[in-house]
Amino acid sequence: MNWLRRIAVVASSVLLGPVLAVSLFVAQAQLKMTVEQLVSFIKSSIQLRHDDRKVADYVRKVKLANALDARTVEDLQGMGAGPQTVMALKALASESTALPPAPPPAPKPVYVGPPPPDSIEQARVLSEVTENALDYARSLPNFLCLQVTRRYIDQSGMESYHLVDTIAEKLSYFDQKEDYSVMSVNGIPVTGRDHQRLGGATSSGEFGSILREIFSPETNTRFAWERWATLRGRRMHVFSYHVPQSTSKYSIRWGDGPGARTIIAGYRGYVYADRETNKVMRLQLETENMPVDFPIQSVTLDLNYDYTDISGEKYLLPLKAELHSREGKFLVKNEVEFRRYNRFGADTSISFGDVPEAIGEEQTKEQPIK
Fold first, then answer.
1. What's the angle, vertex CA 288, arms to CA 286 and CA 294, rounded to 5?
2. What residues are paired with 231 via a beta bridge?
3. Are 152 and 337 in contact (CB under 8 A)?
4. How far is it, in rounded angstroms, from Cα 283 to Cα 216?
5. Is the distance from CB of 50 to CB of 24 less than 8 angstroms?
6. pTM of the model
7. Per residue in 117-152, pLDDT tens?
8. Cα 313 to the chain's mean position, in Å?
9. Distance between CA 227 and CA 369 in Å, rounded?
10. What whole-number distance in Å separates Cα of residue 231 and Cα of residue 308?
């Protein structure tokens, strides 16, 4: 009967956690373990929320093959080891001082990415990327879409943002020109509100004008190979670029009315081009050398493109843009999303009743190279 009862207890323990079940088999026998094995056991116990008393009893039966140092015990305590387990570990550390030290952990494997293309291939790729970028606006159909802008501010300068408003606009793209019509603010329908009169930070030019400027021969942009990257599961060429203020057309406006000011800023950043198509899928921009007397000290832009179906055809269109600006400690962040693309036509309409959920970070975040 005792044997049957013992089996029942072990079976129950397996359901609760396989590590503790082992302790019932060892009874009073000492377990020989390395420090690495002991640490692994304690970490598993913390993760599985095993009873502190039972874990401590298990540790007291351990006979170490090498020395357990006080720093390792402190680390395990910081990870959540219980007080009785920590006391047992400290006793074990004291008993093992004469043993040889634990070997250092094996070094993590260093990933060596694919080699960069040679200079001839880089020039060929950049030439095709440039051609595609300059032709981008002309390749787009006339369409309508829903532009959703979520605007955040932070007055502490610590990037602790809070949402100020959510703006839904009907964006019309016709004959390579953008036109905005504000439909709602914070879910409340509005009429007659101009895009430029929204107040706060706004942006435009995501449908080709910024691409055209960066790659235009008149801009005299300097490009350089940077690295490989992975974006939305596809391999990307990443090129750095620099546009000096003398050839830039990137304008930044501050304020309204008579006191408003507009400057032209130089900038630098990165372009991500799909390895298979040599089309730009992402661009990043950061202004530089802003005038010291201009209220805004910096502006950054992160713009992602992705393929979207319009009337059964796939087009490369803006997916999401994130704009940051800084005025002293006052920080602004705009998250701009482009949704519900439809071909432009007299009978085309877009539902603006409910604003879609925000696009997840996984769609715009760079992924590790595999």
1. 110
2. 234, 366
3. no
4. 15
5. no
6. 0.69
7. 999 999 999 999 999 999 988 888 888 899 999 999
8. 29
9. 11
10. 16
